[in-house]
């Protein structure tokens, strides 16, 4: 069992939301050469509905930070949608975080720390991250984060 195993999540009191289907012509995650690229995910409420609004107008910074954490959970749910894949995650390599912001909101890095702190608690090796504030995101979601994860090799099934 690796640090990314569902059992580890359960012991930490973390519950994953339902995995989101892609909202376009792409897949939620793509694996190559020991890396898993996870498409941008949105923060979800407990029923799996995307959370919307612009930070600095509709949503305050503290709520946006909580939504970034929820987006991290959505990234993990996308990984877990394929059985056995979450247990192969060994570390977070990189995050690209985008925040739907009012023109004068500049604390984008503080919002995205909500996701980084979640991942650092599970995968303490640290990760690279880029933070971007944008005037709009798809369907007016508050936060979108994409990620790259390192994976342990898949264990062949005995025949």
TrEMBL record:
InterPro entries for this protein: Endoribo_LPSP/chorism_mut-like, RutC-like_sf, YjgF/YER057c/UK114
CDD domains according to UniProt: YjgF_YER057c_UK114_like_1
Signal peptide residue numbers: none
Top-level taxon in the UniProt lineage: Bacteria
Entry-linked Pfam families: Ribonuc_L-PSP
Gene3D superfamilies from the UniProt entry: RutC-like
Annotated source species: Psychromarinibacter halotolerans
UniProt-recorded name of the protein: RidA family protein
């Amino acid at each position: 069992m690796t640090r990314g195993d569902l059992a580890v999540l359960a012991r930490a009191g973390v519950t994953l939301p339902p995995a989101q289907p892609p909202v376009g012509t792409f897949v939620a995650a793509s694996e190559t050469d020991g890396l898993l690229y996870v498409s941008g995910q949105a923060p979800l409420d407990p029923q799996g509905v995307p959370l919307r609004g612009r930070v600095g107008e509709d949503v305050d910074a503290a709520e946006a930070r909580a939504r970034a954490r929820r987006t991290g959970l959505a990234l993990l749910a996308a990984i877990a949608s394929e059985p056995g894949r979450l247990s192969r995650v060994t570390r977070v390599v990189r995050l690209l975080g985008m925040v739907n912001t009012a023109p004068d909101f500049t604390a984008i890095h503080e919002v995205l720390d909500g996701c980084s702190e979640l991942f650092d608690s599970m995968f303490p090796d640290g990760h690279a991250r880029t933070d971007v504030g944008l005037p709009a995101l798809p369907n007016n979601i508050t936060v979108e984060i994409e990620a790259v994860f390192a994976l342990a090799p898949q264990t062949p099934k005995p025949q």
